[in-house]
Structure to design on (150 residues):
């Protein structure tokens, strides 16, 4: 007995479009990750550029002064102006409180227990030693290079 059967027809291969929901989810996660990475890298680049600009301004102001006391006064004034611009909520800090804030992210406490102590009365010093002033100026330079303390 011969039955009139036809050949088996397989369904067509699945198409690549539209993708399955999992692929859409993966694409969305990747796009979000790329966007967040871009924002982070951009913020870091802007912060790095701002730090370089501040350092170049600081160096330009220091280059105009040759006396150690003048350089120390310049460093103290520049650091205070920088603080006022970046953290206006901390403008009222003076003396030891200011040094404590500058030491906030440093374990060795270079401002309150090191060469940075000279900044408290730098504007009122009649004169100071060249080595001590240079150490304090180098400390200010390092602080400006690191950026704003938390």
């Amino acid at each position: 007995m011969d039955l009139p059967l036809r050949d088996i027809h397989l369904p067509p291969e699945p198409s690549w479009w539209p993708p399955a929901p999992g692929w859409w989810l993966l694409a969305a996660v990747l796009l979000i990750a790329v966007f967040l990475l871009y924002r982070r890298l951009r913020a870091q680049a802007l912060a790095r550029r701002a730090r370089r600009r501040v350092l170049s301004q600081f160096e330009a102001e220091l280059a105009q002064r040759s006396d150690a006391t003048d350089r120390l006064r310049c460093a103290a004034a520049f650091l205070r102006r920088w603080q006022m611009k970046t953290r206006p909520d901390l403008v009222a800090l003076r003396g030891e409180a200011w040094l404590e804030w500058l030491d906030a992210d440093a374990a060795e406490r270079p401002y309150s227990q090191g060469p940075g102590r000279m900044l408290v009365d730098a504007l009122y010093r009649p004169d100071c030693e060249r080595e001590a002033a240079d150490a304090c100026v180098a400390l200010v330079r390092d602080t400006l290079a690191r950026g704003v303390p938390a």
